Amino acid sequence: MLTLPEPITSLVLALNKLPGIGPRSAERLALFLAQTEPLEARRLAEAIVSACERVGTCELCGALTEKQPCTVCDNLTRDRSVLCVVERAVDIFAFEKGGSFKGVYHVLGGKLSPINGVEPDDLRIPQLDKRTLDAEVREVIVALSMDVEGDATAFYLAKRLQRPGLIITRLAQGLPSGTGIEFTDQLTLNRALEGRRALPS
């Protein structure tokens, strides 16, 4: 029986670790890459290494960036009174593509999930506490996925961040249930942003 050469098998295993890439997709990609011109393969490898080495997270908001602070945090025209809390750094790109949000961001780095051992201190919630103490912040928009963990995290934040003068809202329920911000089209995201409502405290 003909089996894949060991280098291709190793490449399949590496590709299978990528999000959204199952065993069959990993095998197809590995076979394609193994037949690519060495120069093109080297360029791809160098691009991956360069991205890993040059891109980090903003020390203030947690966004993906090459410099500190990121371009959003460094932009003095942004409305710093409105802080949008997202689950992952990639969610910021969805808002920025829409172009309707003019505030600043805060990346949590995940959602609360006691079953999986994810507690408040495992996320960037303490940093969020400090940012909301700034008198300039008047509204916190909780822009998390519409699922059980997203709901639980949103209500936890509403309780934890409660203080006089601070409004805590959540995106309207126009977002598809059980899906992430990154997969939402711009029109739906913009409407959800406009239709946000206050969370009960």
Give the helix/strand layout:
Elements: H1 6-15, H2 23-34, H3 38-54, E1 56-57, E2 64-65, E3 82-86, H4 89-98, E4 104-107, H5 125-132, E5 139-143, H6 148-160, E6 167-170, H7 186-194, E7 197-198
Parallel strand pairs: 3-4, 3-5, 5-6
Antiparallel strand pairs: 1-2, 6-7
Short description:
With 201 residues, the chain is an alpha/beta fold.
Describe the protein in words:
With 201 residues, the protein is of the alpha/beta class. The protein has two domains: 6-54, Orthogonal Bundle (Helicase, Ruva Protein, domain 3); 64-198, Dna Topoisomerase Vi A Subunit, Chain: A, domain 2 (3-Layer(aba) Sandwich). The protein has seven helices and seven strands; from the N terminus they run H-H-H-E-E-E-H-E-H-E-H-E-H-E. Helix 1 packs across helix 2 and helix 4 (89-98) crosses helix 7 (186-194). The termini are far apart. The model has no long low-confidence stretch (mean pLDDT 91).
Tags for this entry?
201 residues; alpha/beta; Helicase, Ruva Protein, domain 3; Dna Topoisomerase Vi A Subunit, Chain: A, domain 2; 2 domains; five-stranded mixed β-sheet; two-stranded antiparallel sheet; 7 helices; 39% helix; elongated
